[in-house]
Design brief:
The complex is a heterodimer. Chain A has 13 helices and 10 strands. By secondary structure, chain A is of the alpha+beta class. By secondary structure, chain B is of the alpha+beta class. Chain B has 3 domains: about 120 residues, Acyl-CoA dehydrogenase/oxidase, N-terminal domain (Butyryl-Coa Dehydrogenase, subunit A, domain 1); about 110 residues, Butyryl-CoA Dehydrogenase, subunit A, domain 2 (Beta Barrel); about 140 residues, Up-down Bundle (Butyryl-CoA Dehydrogenase, subunit A, domain 3), CATH 1.20.140. Classes of the chains: A alpha+beta, B alpha+beta.
């Protein structure tokens, strides 16, 4: 059967020209920042500012933003290609440095006022404005709607007090998306009711930012925030008062797809290190890659990463067409996290002592990809979500 | 890029699924397995009547048309209820039809394919030998020499599934040149009623209603015209079917995953313990969801490989990965499913143990998971290790 006839009979399963072009461009761009660059920023715990500026100059930050504000107007199908290639080149340090600008402000695009969009998006896309995403709290991670940061209306302003935790890039960000409780949920109504979202300046006079020392991704800071009488004008509110959580729900699935693509990118990078090493390291008069005991785990990881990647692409395509992708996004994040980590772990085993040594990069990938298994949602809760919402089983938590 | 099935694909899936549910519910597959039969003749006849044997055979040869993608849809739907008994359809479809399409002369195709499409001719593959599975060519001992206008075959074959009821065995045999040396190999259609041909039933763990045989060939004579493809190049007729076989088995594995998932969900929904149905227990829910995630992945890798193959793309790596991933998930899922059903999963009154036993074969045949990994490792540029 001819190519075109098959396409008519069975639909389209090829990457689009846009997707291929983006992957190629990002791979090329990432080559300017070699693995040594990422090792150094990780060691120093410094935000990769040079890379961030480069990404902005390349137009990467605005890939999924509307053209009228300077974005490329593409979809999640293209964004996953970009994030996979960024993570493959620079690990989670690279991906997380841009992730918030690329993704988190989507809610502003969709629900912000015209004035807010015009005022903020060009800076977000151009890289002059870095964005932090202020949702999690010490007592409210996945159970987001139980959060306690309060916003009290005072005339044209809101007064905000509370604590946030695990807020990435807050050391360097100029803006923050802040989810607050503006009123108690009415009895019988969902706890998600009464949460209000703001997109405002990260005012360091009113917000104390304490960095959390952590296992990996040292270049992109994670923080605890203490918010003390932060006064925010009402025009910084995103969407309706009390509906902030519902607005964020729109973004959960694409975020899972992006995180899955990042986990797969890191897994692939680790696998490449392992394959290269296995091909040149000689023991007992032959390269270790000739041993099936060495080959099989790597071949297995390759197959698992490739197959999970199909789920990412499928989910992104559904999302871009406005079709529910809850199953695909969650499965992709679940398996992407597991298999990405497994690939890094097997790569470490392949390199032996060198895998454990900082010079050889694999240990950094291993530390970083672990985070894709935890955030933004744990594998355990994904399983519970899928059980309840996709298989119709009773809520178990 | 959207990974959507077309309207045609969806309609065919619906048709196949309805047919299977109406004619071959799981209970019937269980009965077949318990019946002691060595060939499910009724299943064969019903598949013939419904036109399954013609899927993948072009209309000019009396078939229904359809490509590997359409065949994969059939494979999955049949496997969902029949599990390993899908081979009743699959083995002749791959070993017979594909081989003929790849290597036979026009005359052979016009003579044999229409009868195969109608289900009037049954083929069985006799390629593997006692000393050679994956390393088939290295171990090939069965020989074929030309004596006047007849081929004379001698040797032994293993794992010829359905041979007991086949009209023809598709036999691969070393080609003995006129000077007595070995020059390549031949693919020869051997009528199963030939004098000198003997068989022994090999009892096995699963797919019991479709028996597999050891075949003995002792000075078996067949007409010279029964060779498929050029003399000495028999392997070429088979090799094209290897990727097809892998892709179809990935689809079969996905079908088993469908069956395992639905049976697990139903059981959790019905079974009560500690005052409520066991679907309320988180530990059990998570197991079912993992099965669903494996099913999802298998479906995509299988369809993706089938799609590439249908377009004539190189697909060796994708087909190998699809077969490896899907077959391993299927066995893993059936094992989890058996655990979920507990004692009932172990009982032959439910289907879980049947999925578990049948799918286990696909981790072994037609290529083991280990050989798959060897192959993928070479794709990654690592040295050949075997």
């Amino acid at each position: 059967m001819t190519e075109s006839a098959t396409a008519q009979v069975h639909g389209a399963w090829d990457l689009s020209e846009d997707q291929l072009a983006i992957r190629q461009a990002v791979e090329e761009g990432m080559r300017k920042f070699g693995l040594d660059y990422w090792r150094e920023v990780d060691k120093a715990g410094e935000f990769p500012a040079e890379f961030f500026s480069f990404a902005a100059a390349q137009g990467w930050l605005g890939i999924a933003m509307p053209p009228e504000h300077g974005g490329a107007g593409l979809g999640i199908s293209e964004a996953v290609m970009m994030m996979e290639a960024i993570a493959r080149g620079g690990g989670l340090s690279a991906a997380s440095a841009v992730h918030m600008n690329v993704f988190s402000t989507n809610v502003v695009v969709k629900h912000g006022s015209d004035e807010m969009r015009q005022e903020t998006l060009p800076g977000v896309i151009g890289g002059q404005t870095r964005v932090a995403f202020g949702v999690s709290e010490p007592d409210s991670g996945l159970d987001t709607s139980s959060l306690r940061t309060r916003a009290v209306r005072e005339g044209d302003n809101w007064r905000i007090n509370g604590r946030k935790v695990w807020i990435s890039t807050a050391q360097v960000a100029e803006k923050i998306l802040l989810l607050t409780r503006s009123r108690e949920a009415e009895p019988g109504r969902s706890k998600a009711d009464g949460l209000t979202l703001f997109f405002t300046d990260l005012d360091r006079d009113r917000i104390t930012v304490n960095e959390i020392d952590k296992t990996g991704r040292a270049a992109v800071d994670s923080n605890e925030l203490f918010i003390d009488d932060l006064v925010v004008p009402d025009r910084h509110r995103v969407g309706e008062e009390g509906r902030g959580f519902k607005l964020l729900l729109d973004g959960l699935n694409p975020e899972r797809l992006l995180v899955a693509s990042e986990a797969i990118g890191i897994g692939r990078a680790a696998l490449q290190q392992a394959v290269d090493y296995a091909k040149q390291r000689t023991v007992f008069d032959r390269v270790i890659g000739q041993n099936q005991g060495v080959q099989f785990p790597l071949a297995d990881s390759y197959a698992r990463l490739e197959s999970t990647w199909l789920t990412v692409l499928r989910g992104a395509s559904l999302y871009d067409r406005g079709i529910d992708c809850g199953a695909e996004a969650n499965i992709a994040k679940l398996l992407g996290g597991e298999y990405g980590f497994e690939a890094a772990d097997r790569a470490m085993q392949t390199l032996g002592g060198y895998g454990y040594a900082k010079d050889y990069h694999v240990e950094r990938m291993w530390r970083e990809v672990k985070l894709c298994r935890i955030a933004p949602v744990s594998p355990e809760l994904i399983l519970s979500y899928l059980a309840e919402h996709k298989l119709g089983l009773p809520k178990s938590y | 890029m959207d990974f959507d099935l077309s309207e045609t694909d969806l309609a065919w899936r619906e048709t196949a699924r309805e047919w299977v549910d109406k004619n071959y519910p799981k209970s019937k597959a269980r009965e077949l397995e318990a019946s002691g039969t060595t060939f499910p003749q009724e299943l064969w006849n019903d598949l013939s009547e419904a036109g399954f044997h013609g899927v993948g055979i072009p209309e000019e040869y009396g078939g229904q048309g359809g490509d590997i993608f359409a065949q994969a849809i059939a494979a999955r739907e049949l496997s969902r209820n029949l599990a390993g008994l899908v081979a009743t359809w699959l083995a002749p479809a791959v070993g017979g039809t594909l081989t003929l399409l790849a290597a036979a002369t026009e005359e052979q195709k016009h003579e044999l394919l229409p009868r195969m499409a109608r289900g009037e001719l049954v083929f069985a593959i006799a390629i593997t030998e006692p000393g050679g599975g994956t390393d088939l060519l290295g171990a090939l001992r069965t020989s074929s020499r030309l004596d006047g206008d007849e081929w004379v075959l001698n040797g032994q074959k293993m794992w010829s599934t359905g041979a007991g009821n086949a009209d023809y065995l598709v036999v691969l045999a070393a080609n003995v040149a006129d000077d007595g040396s070995i020059a390549g190999n031949n693919l020869i259609l051997v009528p199963s009623s030939s004098p000198g041909l003997d068989m022994r039933h090999i009892p096995k763990l699963g797919v019991r209603a479709l028996a597999s045989y050891e075949v003995f060939l002792d000075e078996v004579r067949v007409p010279a015209g029964n060779i498929v493809g050029p003399r000495g190049q028999g392997w070429k007729g088979i090799v094209q079917g290897l990727n097809v076989d892998k892709v179809l088995l990935s689809a079969c594995s996905t079908g088993v995953l469908d069956g395992v998932l639905e049976d697990s969900q139903r059981y959790l929904h019905e079974r009560e313990a500690f005052g409520r149905t066991i679907e309320h227990f988180q530990a059990l829910q998570h197991k079912v969801v993992e099965i669903a995630a494996w099913r999802h992945t298998s479906e995509l890798v299988s369809q993706h490989a089938a799609w590439m193959l249908a377009r004539g793309r190189p697909v060796a790596a994708e087909a190998t990965m699809a077969k490896m991933i899907a077959s391993e998930y299927a066995v893993q899922a059936a094992d989890v499913g058996l655990q979920l059903l507990g004692g009932m999963g172990y009982s032959t009154e439910t289907d879980m143990q049947r999925y578990w036993r049948d799918a286990r074969l696909w981790r072994i045949a037609p290529i083991t998971g280990e050989m798959s990994r060897n192959f993928i490792a070479e794709q990654l540029g690592m040295p050949r290790s075997y």
